[in-house]
Amino acid sequence: MDIPHEWPEPAWLATLDPSERDTYKLRFYLKLAGLYANKDGSIMQLSEAIGLKGAALSTAKNRGQVGPETALKLEQVLGRRLFPWEIFLPDLVLDLQE
Fold first, then answer.
1. Contact 37, 75 (CB under 8 A)
2. pTM for this one?
3. Phi and psi for 22 in degrees, rounded to 5?
4. How many other CB atoms sit within 10 Å of the CB of residue 16?
5. Residues in CB range of 26: below 8 A, 6 or more apart
6. Which residues of the chain have pLDDT under 70?
7. How many beta carbons lie within 10 A of that of residue 26, not counting itself?
8. Which residues touch 31 (CB under 8 Å, ≥6 apart)?
9. How many other CB atoms sit within 10 Å of the CB of residue 48?
10. CA 5 to chain centre
11. Cα(3)–Cα(66) distance, rounded to whole angstroms?
């Protein structure tokens, strides 16, 4: 089994108020995922690649949260080694034994 890669966090995240940090961290990872997924860096194309409507990930990015199913779909499409679901939902523990 691959060990998930740990992306370095941008230094500017540390300058944010703790209440904003998780939202901006998610936005960073979604933008990075879009760049990884396609040459245009399109989050809309990434949304479609994981089976969602084009604006779904953009909406999630603006809200600052994604659901567990979306995080798992991102991991499946992009690969666990680079984009494990935990980077999109760091505070959630999923029971994947089912």
1. no
2. 0.85
3. -65, -40
4. 13
5. 60, 61, 64, 65, 66, 88
6. 1-4, 92-98
7. 21
8. 41, 43, 61
9. 14
10. 13
11. 23
